[in-house]
Amino acid sequence: MKFAYQAREPNGQIRSGEITAPDAGEAARQLRNEGLYLLSVQPISGGGAGGLAVFCRRVTRSEIIYVTNQLAVMVDSGVPLADAVQGLAQQATNPTLADVLFAIHRDLESGEDFSSALAKFPKYFDRTYVNLIKASEASGTLAAMLDRIATQSRNELETLQKIRGAMIYPAAMLVMCVGVCIFLLTYVFPKLLPMFAGREEEIPKPTRMLMAVSEVLRHEWYFVIIGGFLLISFVLYGRKQPWGRRFLDWMWLNLPIWGTLTRKVAISRSVRTLATTVNAGVPMLDALQLCAGVANNVFYERTWLDVSEKVTGGKQIHEALAGNDLFPDTLVQMIASGEKTGKLGHVL
After folding, report:
1. I need a surface site. Which of 56, 149, 239, 313 has the fewest CB within 10 A?
2. pLDDT band for position 51 (50/70/90)?
3. Which residues pair with residue 19 across a beta bridge?
4. For residues 311 and 320, is the Cβ–Cβ distance under 8 A?
């Protein structure tokens, strides 16, 4: 890939040019080896680089957490923010992440706020992240806020990994059960059908249903595959529509076992975000709207927006949540205690 760069020579002059390297990190290393102080590097669009952009490496959540944590350490140690971002960009092994960090570094060098530079990459830095950084810039606590964001993101990632780990065994059992049923209906059950020949009237209805399913799987299996494909496509399409999202979110909330887990995850994400934003000094209305954005469930999202409207009208948070089936009474009582004592962030 070709990269356009700007760098400062040892005598202070600015040099611009192009360099060929596998990724932005390698390009930065080559320029540093020449004794240059790198100011910016970015891929040249068009040609081969444009074709490779489709296959750019994905930036994982773990990498964002690592960058946030490293920034917190360096800023707390007194390293200028722009230099810290540039150093992480030069060290990044992921070329996509390196490009993002170099772009943020250029914005910082041109005088933009850190929060404004991050807001240009919503795919990697969500509204909560940007608003927390904006609040820390106003209060002068950037290092502490970066550390808090890293801790919260790490906790959320660990929770997600635990949920996925807990679902591996049930998912494996479900796949095995489906496989065994298909084997029985397509191989074993047909060998028993001659036993029922001439006695169709005496066969119980459940047995006749199994015979029909066996016939479909053996002779009309392509209809099953087409039907499954259409069902998955419909679910994926419906998930992007308001009506489909409402139905699926309602279903997740009301499924046995899974529904309880879904409620706990939505509440923990929302309350953790509210605690972080309140402690960071983010205005309460903005904090409540951020809670709605991270709930990842249309019903919790609507509830937090309703709470925001009621708080605007003069009510307290616990009064707006009282009587809502989505939130346990214990949580509402603890929020009430936090509001009365003025320690809401600590209670959350």
Report:
1. 313
2. very low
3. 3
4. yes
Q: Is the pTM of this model over 0.85?
A: no
DSSP helix/strand/coil, 159: helix
**pLDDT grade, residue 47 (50/70/90)?**
very low
Question: For the chain, which domains are there?
Answer: 2-55 (3.10.20), 61-149 (1.20.81.30), 157-244 (no CATH), 258-347 (1.20.81.30)
Taking only the tens place, the pLDDT of each residue in 269-324 is: 888 888 888 887 788 888 888 888 778 888 998 999 999 999 999 899 999 998 88
In the beta sheet, which residues pair with residue 16? 6
Convert 54-114 into a string of H (helix), E (strand) and C (coil): HHCCCCCHHHHHHHHHHHHHHHHCCCCHHHHHHHHHHHCCCHHHHHHHHHHHHHHHCCCCH
- 335, with CB counted inside 10 A (0-12, 13-18, 19+), is buried
Rounded Cα distance between 144 and 281, Å, is 13
State how far the Cα of 151 lies from the Cα of 348, in Å rounded to an integer: 15
pLDDT of residue 53: 43
**Cα–Cα dist 116/125, whole Å:** 11
Alpha carbon distances (Å) from 83 to 50, 90, 145, 156: 29, 10, 18, 29
